Amino acid sequence: MRLENKIESLYHRYWLNNYAAPNLTLIKGEGEKVWDDRGNEYLDFTSGVATNSIGHCHPNLVAAIGRQAEKIIHASNLFRNETQAKLAEALVERIAPGRLFFCNSGTEASETLLKLSRLFGLKKKGAGANPFKVIVSSNAFHGRTFGGMSATPQPKIQNSFKPLLPNFPVAQFNDSDSFAALIDRDTAAILIEPIQGEGGIHVAKKEFLRDLRTLCTDNGILLLMDEVQSGTGRTGAFLAHEFAGITPDAIGMAKGLGGGFPIGAVWISDAYADLFTPGSHGSTFGGNPLGCAAALAVLQTIEEENLLSRVKKLSAPWMEQLVDLQKRHELIVEIRGRGFLVGLQLNEDPGELRKLLQQAGLLTVAASGNVLRLLPPLTVSEASLRQSILTLDTALTTYGKATAPKP
Ligand SMILES: Cc1ncc(COP(=O)(O)O)c(C=O)c1O
Fold first, then answer.
1. C-alpha of residue 237 to centroid of ligand 1, in Å
2. Which residues line ligand 1 (CB under 6 A)?
3. I need a labelling partner for 17 at 20 to 30 A (CA). Which of 51, 100, 184, 317 fits?
4. Which CATH number goes with the domain that contains 122?
5. Predicted confidence (pLDDT) per residue in 64-80, tens digit
6. Distance from the CA of 250 to the center of ligand 1, in angstroms?
7. Domain holding 381: CATH number?
């Protein structure tokens, strides 16, 4: 039996059915390119769903993981480790005075933000008030654990798992009045993504984020920012909310932080960091030496290769070319996003187009609401960005011909 058939049959027999069955076996990656087991080369504009921030197998990342693996891989939070201390310092320097909690994934970062809101509510709790509500947004996505799902008002995520946690009223994204209308004495926090990724690449307006900051300050509640997908340079800022010139009270990060190695982090401003006391939270693997070494290599590479400016510089003309495609192809309704977190709003499900793109060597991801997501790594070359436009143009033309009404 050929190797590829064997792997497919092992998947078929032993893999849980929670994901759509993948149809590619990837065996190698370098920068923005990956290769399958038949030797086909692809431009990877999925980046492991916004995770391979500095491309596949960046030499800095490979070397840092290798060096650390030879020293110590894991020891738990029973002990100090040098890489965790350095990473915490590096993140505080990039964000604002505060403290860090490390975990392994985005949904754990969301859980930590939600636990912070509970500790905050508990402290605030007074006569008759139960300040445990967290206002979330339409189209939000915060993860797949019970807290994450409860904060994710999407029937396809929630329906099979009810009852969920209570107290997550839903306001309209980009409409601060709808958030204001839901705040009462039982509210602990607002949880928001500065750019909704899974929900379909919806970008928060600057004024909206500023209004939320003011609302939270005026009402004595927390502003919690989920930067799991939008963070670590993906938009050309280290964190996407920076363009609004605000500082949240806590921020969740993951995905791109480890460049493909699983690590999550939650920054909490000094004003609220002491709400967590010994025993109140934890994670066996969280912040282990290997994960922190990977994240430090990512931060160092962002700095050394000037990747934030690079993303801004290269994404602007690329976006223009995408808008140009929109003018020529009816299937595209709108182009949304910032930097290398981009969505093509289609007027149909992107499934068939994604297949055509894959056949032509461009890997993409879908998002809610008929959106095709493009997530190149921050290190992508200009040539690959140009190639992505040519491939999209050809695939959109083929798709248009195949689906045109017969005369
Ligand atoms: C904004 C946001 N929050 C949380 C998560 C959950 O992250 P993970 O899949 O690492 O648990 C995601 C994942 O897509 C996300 O985009």
1. 19
2. 105-107, 110, 141-143, 193, 197-198, 226, 228-229, 254
3. 51
4. 3.40.640.10
5. 999 999 999 999 999 99
6. 16
7. 3.90.1150.10
